[in-house]
Amino acid sequence: MTALPSLHDGGLSPRLSLLCLVFLLLLPACPASGADLDGTASNHHTVIRAGDSYSNVYGTTNYGDNALARYGTVVSNGGQAVQAFGGLGYGNSADAAYNSVVVHQGIISKNIYGGFADGYQTARSNSNTVVQSGGDISHIVGGNAESGRGRARADSNLVIINGGTTGTVIGGHGSGYLDGAARYNLVSISGGSVTSIVGGSATTTKGTADASFNAVLVNGGRVSGNIIGGLVYTSSTGQGSTARYNAITLVQGQIDGQVYGSAQTDSPGQLVSPLPAAGSGNSLNLLGWQGTLRRVAAFQYLNLALPNGMRSGDTLLTLGNEQEAGTCRAARCASWAPWGARACASGTGTR
Fold first, then answer.
1. What pLDDT, on the 0 to 100 scale, is given for residue 318?
2. Which residue, 164, 307, 322, 336, has most beta carbons within 10 Å?
3. Which N-terminal residues, if any, form the signal peptide (predicted)?
4. Does 321 reside within a domain?
5. Is the confidence at residue 298, as pLDDT, over 70?
């Protein structure tokens, strides 16, 4: 058997040998499978390209007593990663703000965090953004804040889904030993497929878990599971909890699960039950949306806008068999107004 010629064999000319060496040197470096990618030293910006394979990808990171992780960006144009963080702050006091993750294509097999703050005494994850227009993602959190001994807040984070496939989507999550809060977060879906949506979720050990003033907008796409405006975890007997003034707005799209203004769940997150609606301030807004929902609960207010072309006797909303007795099963149009709108709002408001 004849051996393949090497660069030093007479079979290759010196010019061809030189060209081969130059070509090899110009090839882009292939990332090792499972390696991390950190954009802190590259203007806080990283890109996952087709063919890339990483473990953790960071737009920016900061570690220390006062860890500020801001203005980090991760863009996925293909390839795959286990987790992606727009910004990660880890220290005694951690703050992750104004970070973003944008997914056009690719696979994120575990989690995406727009911003992640892990602080021993305090943690804040505010004003972070995740945008997905394609690809396959397991779990999205717009802003995540965790504090082992103090307070954690995840406020004003944004998740936008225009396409692709996604598992659970959470606008903001706050988990603190003394207090955990997730407020003023927004999840918007106009395309793609999502398993479940939570506007904001909060958990604590000794203080108050607050998941209030969050919003979910569905203007297209499909949600195969539940939609919850504010979710609180009952992790201990000494904690307090509140989830008020959350809003869910349905314009278009398919929803196969239940819709709750607010709910509570156990620590593993397996048993979910709606909170009382009376005095909650939660609102369900149907802006031209028509269809069937398995169950609607924990809403004090029901606001209806008639779709174009709706006539007297047409059904606007039908509730499935899981709806508790004593609640309106359908809202119909009569005399240019939704029949029983007030009664139906009152009925769902008691469940």
1. 87
2. 164
3. 1-34
4. no
5. yes
